[in-house]
């Protein structure tokens, strides 16, 4: 009676991960040796595999018996509970680095730190969340779900697209977002579609259309939102309108009814920015000049601190501001007023101070202008903070803008000045500066 042949079973495959099924059930292919090295298991099964593994040919290919255990551990057994737990751990860390904005390099160092802190944990010792692995998981796995937007599935008929220019060194970054209203899932939703590098108005509009097409949102887009720079919406002159992003997008979408949504915060910024051009004192330039005079010079800062002690004023770190957000001058003016007497003594006591700053502090009404601007900017600042809340509605924003408009009309009708400014004006009149006080009041 002939002997029954042995076959390469799943049990043998699990026990000997160096091998896989060969040309038929009675053979196994060695994954360590040269490709096409088949070992017959028909006669003795596992013993045939052991005999091949003990051969000089196999040992040479393996690089020594000492590598056998390490290779087994590296390959692992897919589908087991341990491998699933390891995969979950590998995915958890990259998932948490995204909202924390951690770098890929820090993720690699974190996995090394875990292995040192938890030397007895088996999963941690196999944990290999390197920089390249973290980057691959975030870009190839999580990003696909983050930008997956299917408005048809949720029954959303319309959406609006919004962009905002951001310059990173010499590169112009343009984030593309959409907003839509989903009453089934909490109301107003905002999602990031893309982050692009663009140079001109045409590039921006083309990128917007491309992003909308990619997510099948082209026919659903009914509004465009951007800041109030000329690139987005242009000036009032019709000749420049055709070159704006809004005009190019309207042309690309072939939708004349596309709604342009201006940034309400920028409206307030531009309002006070252009209004202060009528003043004699250039507050923005003064803040920048003072900040640049001190911020990298330790000797000058130490000297200013001594002046603060002399006039009994607490030293405060001087602030600059963002040129695209004019009202960021508000904290800078606050600090300047708190240290005005010390700064005035400092600059007027220098042998060769900057001419602009010397003229400013010699001006009899310089502090008056600062206090007047502080009072006016405070009203704008508080209303912009209301508009920049995370959860806000169109009705609330319109109410805020109307409130600012009402405040400005009332102040103009009443020739409003803060109590501090009125008191300082009264002191100036007593000093005989009637003409200067009248000019300040008229301005």
TrEMBL record:
<dbReference type="InterPro" id="IPR012337">
    <property type="entry name" value="RNaseH-like_sf"/>
</dbReference>
<protein>
    <submittedName>
        <fullName>Uncharacterized protein LOC113429695</fullName>
    </submittedName>
</protein>
